[in-house]
Write a structure and sequence with these properties.
This protein is an all-alpha fold. The chain has one domain. The chain is about 80% helix and about 0% strand. α1 runs antiparallel to α2 and α2 packs antiparallel against α3.
Length: about 60
């Protein structure tokens, strides 16, 4: 579980660096990129046999809005 959290932290950091770079170049909607990131993050969590966390990040981003 600790390895998954560390991997998720570094993945988040590099993804958001890429996200801001892509928004500048491609003028992509950052909200859609954020949803795709949260869906991918929940997929990584569910893939590691933690079904109780499946869709957790996507749910938190949808509820915050």
């Amino acid at each position: 579980m600790v390895e998954l959290l560390v991997f998720s932290l570094f993945f988040s950091l590099f993804f958001f660096l890429f996200l801001f770079h892509a928004v500048d170049i491609l003028s992509v909607d950052p909200y859609l990129l954020l949803l795709s990131y949260s869906y991918w993050n929940s997929f990584l969590v569910s893939k590691e046999n933690y079904p109780e966390y499946q869709g957790l990040y996507l749910y938190t981003y949808l509820v915050q809005d």
